[in-house]
Design a protein that fits this description.
CATH architecture of the largest domain: Orthogonal Bundle
CATH topology of the largest domain: DNA Cyclobutane Dipyrimidine Photolyase, subunit A, domain 3
Bound molecules: flavin-adenine dinucleotide
Helix content: 40-55%
Structural class: mainly alpha
CATH class of the largest domain: Mainly Alpha
Strand order of the largest sheet: 3-2-1-4-5
Shape: globular
Number of strands: 5
Order of helices and strands: EHEHHEHEHEHHHHHHHHHHHHHHHHHHH
Length: 489
């Protein structure tokens, strides 16, 4: 007997699932495979919340299969494929083309070698509208529209020739899923969005039913964005829903009265999704170095001071309420909106002068929606090392005053400050000793003093960044980046 394997990675769904459709068409018995790889489990970009979400997604898939045809392993990828090949004789392997970190790219190369060596044919379908090896953006926007408007790849689950696993294999699969559910559970102390295709559609539908109407007006508020942003990011990042499914739903609601501004804003974000992943695909060593090589030697602090500042930032103890509230919210929920993510990076790199590489994995590990392509591109943009984007140094006090004027968000995440009035909550270090007594807050004891002087750090960062902006290598690299990643004309 020979079989077809669908290798699930970050495409944990059964609809608009090209690999599954192709495997079904092969006529061979089909087995779905997911592997909790030690390579990724030990990678600092990931944390228990991610594997918990994946386990929930797998549970959802398992429950919707007509028979037991999902194999979940937890071992090195090649040893799992070798084991499956010996048992079932894999003839065809199907997956999507992952745009991931360097370790998954290297792993894919060794899987390709393994396939060649074992006469297994491996077909990879493209990820959304991302084009592998594309040297520039010629025709890219047109391609995006074509892919997003094409029919979704669906097949009737009941008519697939599934490979039925025996009781023992099914129990092994269940134990792996449960291990990641329960293992992670004991380490999770927050409220996270639940994984699964069903959940993804519920979240999408609720956005278009009511939540999304105010999207354009609320997306920068740390508090209201939680409700009015789509909250689809973990479902897109782990593939519980495809970008095409989301875009088609958007088009179906395009003429909804009173929604136009929000739908236009949402549509732009869906374009950005693939745009940033395409950037990473075309220049993946941005995982390790600034995309603009001119910034390789941008002066950053190091040693004890850098470590001390980094720790304070990671733990939400910098003494700057808006920064700390956002970080604590992220740690507890895995989510914060775009503006606050940008502010967190800006604060780390510009105000604290810490190298972006020191913070990039921490944010990845707390973002439930960690998506390498978007994350690295955005992180570098906010860290000011691309040389093509406007230099933007966020002032976290101003952000707080504008986006959380009453301090409700801060009070929720920093209960130590909940007794302060709105006029004082964004700058608690200005409290007089008398006020500290009145509001029962001892600075430096109940809540830290700020680790930097924001006004001073802002001025320094601005001077530094503008003085680097016109360096010949930065300019030359900027032109190269524009040629490669931006549509011409
Ligand atoms: C430093 C930094 C790191 C980021 N890392 C990630 C990440 O790892 N994973 C991730 O999905 N997003 C990341 N973003 C982008 C953005 O903040 C999130 O996609 C968004 O906040 C998710 O919430 P939502 O689903 O409610 O978004 P919505 O505003 O409802 O947008 C819908 C979808 O569009 C896409 N999208 C939205 N904003 C952007 C953007 N600026 N760039 C690219 N795609 C976008 C996402 O897929 C999102 O789910 C990052 C932004 C910054 C500044």
């Amino acid at each position: 007997m020979a079989i077809a394997v669908v290798w699930l990675k970050r495409d944990l769904r059964l609809s608009d699932q090209q690999a599954l459709v192709s495997a079904a068409k092969s006529g061979l018995p089909v087995l779905l495979v997911y592997n909790f790889e030690p390579l990724l489990l030990s990678d600092e970009h990931y944390s228990a919340r991610h594997w918990h979400f994946v386990a929930e997604s797998l549970n959802d898939i398992k429950q919707r299969l007509p028979i037991n045809s999902l194999w979940v392993g937890s071992e090195d990828m090649l040893s799992l494929f070798t084991k499956l090949h010996q048992r079932f004789n894999i003839s065809k392997l199907y997956s999507y083309q992952e745009v991931g970190l360097n370790n998954t790219f290297e792993r894919d190369k060794s899987v390709a070698n393994w396939c060649t060596h074992n006469q297994v044919s491996w077909s990879e379908s493209p990820y959304a509208a991302v084009i592998r090896g594309k040297p520039n953006r010629d025709g890219w926007d047109h391609h995006w529209q074509t892919v997003m408007r094409a029919d979704t790849a669906n097949c009737d689950l009941n008519s697939i020739n599934w490979l039925e696993l025996n009781q023992k294999d099914t129990l092994t699969t269940e134990s792996h899923i449960n291990q990641f559910l329960s293992d992670s559970n004991s380490k999770l102390h927050g409220e996270f969005q639940a994984g699964g295709e069903l959940q993804a559609w519920q979240v999408l539908n609720s956005f278009f039913e009511n939540r999304g109407k105010a999207y354009a007006f609320k997306l920068s508020s740390p508090q209201y964005s939680q409700l009015h942003c789509s909250r689809l990011s973990p479902y897109l990042a782990w593939g519980n829903i495809s970008l095409r499914q989301v875009y088609k739903t958007l088009l179906a609601h395009w003429n909804q009265t009173g929604w136009r501004k929000s739908l236009v804003a949402f549509s732009s974000r869906l374009h950005w999704h693939c745009h940033f992943i395409q950037k990473f695909e075309s220049e993946s060593d941005m995982e390790f170095r600034p995309v603009n090589r001119g910034y390789e030697n941008l002066p950053r602090i190091s040693g004890e001071l850098a470590l001390k500042r980094l720790r304070a930032w990671q733990q939400g103890n910098t003494g700057i309420p808006m920064v700390d509230a956002c970080m604590r919210c992220l740690i507890a929920t895995g989510y914060i909106n775009f503006r606050m993510r940008a502010m967190l990076v800006s604060f780390l790199c510009h105000h604290l002068e810490v190298d972006w590489r020191e913070g990039v994995k921490h944010l990845a590990s707390v973002f439930l929606d960690f998506e390498p392509g978007i994350h690295y591109s955005q992180f570098q943009m906010q860290a000011g090392v691309t040389g093509i984007n406007t230099i933007r140094i966020y002032n976290p006090i101003k952000q707080g005053q504008e986006k959380d004027p009453n301090g409700d968000f801060i009070k929720h995440w920093i209960p130590e400050l909940s007794g302060l009035p709105a006029t004082l909550i964004h700058t608690p270090w200005l409290l007089t000793p008398m006020e500290q007594m009145m509001f029962e807050l001892e600075l430096g004891v109940d809540y830290p003093m700020p680790i930097v002087d924001i006004e001073q750090s802002y001025k320094q960062a601005q001077q530094l960044l503008w003085s680097w902006r016109n360096k010949p290598k930065v300019v030359m690299e900027g032109q190269r980046i524009l040629q490669r990643h931006v549509r011409q004309g």
